[in-house]
Amino acid sequence: MAQTDMPLAELLTHLDRLAQQSLTLWDMPANARATLINVSENATYLVEADGGYKAILRIHREQYHTRRAIECELAWIAALKDARAVVTPDSYTGKDGEVIQKGRIDPLENPRYMVLFEFVEGTQPDEAGDLQSAFEELGEIAARTHEHSKAWQRPEGFERLVWNVETVFGKRTNWGDWRDAPHVTPEVADVLERVESRVRARLEAFGAGNDRYGLIHADMRLANLLAGKTRTRLIDFDDCGFGWFLYDFATGISFMEDDPRVPALKEAWVRGYEKVHPLSDAEKDEIDTFVMLRRMALLAWIGSHIEAPEPQEMAPDFARVTARLGADWLRRTAGRDG
User: Fold this and answer.
1) What are 271-299's pLDDT values in tens digits?
2) What are the boundaries of each domain within the chain?
3) 132-332, what's its fold?
4) Which pLDDT does position 5 carry in this prediction?
């Protein structure tokens, strides 16, 4: 997330100043103040003011999305809400009539895009608790977004990220090369090279027809579900793009792929999904391939985002556990390529 050659702490100091000075771009109370709540691809702030005013400000990472790509994200969010497929947060128009704002502050070289979102009251599912009901709901929500994706007439010049084999393993990846991640020892690399090869072969055989591949949320973790009194909202479409529909389950278990509850959570997710759309046996059999694809992508993400606190915390064991998961998956799929 950091600008080249700038430590994260220094970057966040500048982004904080940018956040505070940019609040005047929208109609909000004069005493509004922004507080950093998350930093990953973007810097996300809670904006608060007297009288109970709340909103969420997202300052985009430079050179991750173009303005057009952000417009397309917001278009899909609005279309999902209009079609009542899922409940999504609104975004606010600035004083100049534009939803996407741009701001710059010294010494950052490039301006940053910004979007102000509705603050959504709700709670995230507790990962330490019983997650099966949450994953059943997650599966149903995923299926509804996928059905909308298949039918939606996208705006002209639609532009979003792609989440496929080449953008995880190829020469122009979204998050870098997994080989560059911390603690990828020769032993770990040997296992993961075989995992990459088999993932490639299986997904080439699986195919990317319109019934299996399209516009997806691509970050459908429990952290992006907010349960209210009467409805659950799906938030943070920043990574939405083109990929296999089943990849959304894999994103749902991001960073917890080694949790012993995962098989039961997969069953719950499929159960919820099939309330909306049936899955073939071939699709169900391939879910674990997408889990490995995602896990490898996350390993690359840790390597390319190592300046942030969350990747630093996970880095010591992530490569080793990824190799263990990969070795288990290789044994399970032996003789079943394609």
Assistant:
1) 999 999 999 999 999 999 999 999 999 99
2) 8-118, 132-332
3) Aminoglycoside 3'-phosphotransferase; Chain: A, domain 2 (3.90.1200)
4) 64
Put simply, whether the predicted model's pTM sits higher than 0.85 gets the answer yes
pLDDT tens by residue, 242-275: 999 999 999 999 999 999 999 999 999 999 999 9
In the block, residue with structure tokens 């005013």: 53
In whole angstroms, what is the distance from residue 69 CA to residue 75 CA? 10
- Token pair of 128, please? 């330490």
Q: Which is nearest to 279 in space by CA: 134, 87, 146, 132?
A: 146
Looking at this protein, which amino acid is placed at residue 294? R
Determine the length of the chain: 338
Q: Strand 43-49 to strand 112-118: parallel, antiparallel, or no bridges (unpaired)? A: unpaired
**DSSP at 97:** S
CA distance linking residue 184 with residue 257, whole number of Å: 18
Query: How is residue 250 written in tokens?
Result: 């894999």
Q: Looking at residue 122, what is its pLDDT?
A: 84
CA distances from 280 to 209, 212, 268, 286 (A): 14, 11, 16, 10
- Element containing residue 132 per DSSP (H, E): helix 132-151
User: Is 8-118 assigned to CATH 3.30.200.20?
Assistant: yes
Rounded to an integer, the average pLDDT of 205-225 is 95
Per-residue pLDDT reduced to its tens digit, 60-113: 998 889 999 999 999 999 999 999 999 899 999 999 999 999 999 999 989 999
DSSP conformation class of 256: -
